[in-house]
Write a structure and sequence with these properties.
2 domains; 53% helix; binds guanosine-5'-diphosphate; binds magnesium ion
Amino acid sequence: MNFDPLIARLRAGNTAALARAISVVENERPGFERLLAEVHHSLGRARRIGITGPPGAGKSTLVERLVAAYRQAGQRVAVVAVDPTSPFTGGALLGDRIRMESVALDDGVYIRSMGSRGSVGGLATTTREVCDLLDAANFDRILVETVGVGQSELDVAGMTDSTVLVLVPESGDGIQTLKSGVIEVADLFVVNKADRPGAEQLRRDLEVTLGLRRRAGRQADAVLWKHPVLLTVATKGDGISELIAALDRHHAWLLESGTLQERRTRRLLHRTREVVDRATRRWVWEEARADQRIAERLEDISAGRVSPYEVAAEVLGGLKQGERT
Ligand SMILES: Nc1nc2c(ncn2[C@@H]2O[C@H](COP(=O)(O)OP(=O)(O)O)[C@@H](O)[C@H]2O)c(=O)[nH]1
Ligand SMILES: [Mg+2]
């Protein structure tokens, strides 16, 4: 299939073309990799910003405020809401909420929800590819909201230029509850619900922890980024302009220090590996019919005549044989 007309409309900011391209990628329709390869040349314009943190911290409320502020500044904004715990996709809560508000008819805003059932090739990989399509579609900002459950904060850091970790005063016994891995990947910290008791204390605790980390030289580079800790009341919009200013400062630092280039190169390495990985699986299970080979040997495995390991070795051996001929 020729994707040129679709890509041209996508670049022109046509929402229907964007939705179509996303569906091609999510469902791995024939030629989806060619489509992504072609849009790859027009990437790099959008700033990708990850918003992560525990459920209920106010991430969606914050995202709504950021969208409104960026729109006011004349920027086109896309939101990707990723919820690995939800099987739903295409219009979960955040989307519905924002759609109801002033942006309903605004083609400078695009909202997409992705759940665990939303993508054939793995949620994290597909989310990164959807971000590419949004970048190609000329959005200035791409906000990726991820529910902070385990691996997902780390995943979101791997797909964005700046990662914002949203915490709330009541999120437990202060920062002891934070897994250190999360602290390591965040570029900016937001203590939301600053209208509640304990916000200032949490901010001080965070600053102490970050200061200690800095002194311990955990950040290797010469040009240090001083992680800001901001207070917000997302429901009222307090602290939003400060957050936007901090994101701008972070972007400037990323550029000046060469970190942006570094992060993007690292992402491209990961992406290439992911694509090889996905294509290999598809080849093994679909084209080389590994399932069929295993089915043929299942009786032998079940009767104890052969182990799963030997059969797996046979399958792989068969693949290598096929490669040579
Ligand atoms: N008191 C207070 N409530 C907030 C604030 N921000 C968000 N909320 C409320 O917290 C709840 C969860 O917000 P939501 O944005 O859905 O959180 P998410 O799960 O992190 O996306 C909602 O009821 C919000 O209205 C805030 O700054 N102060
Ligand atoms: Mg949310």
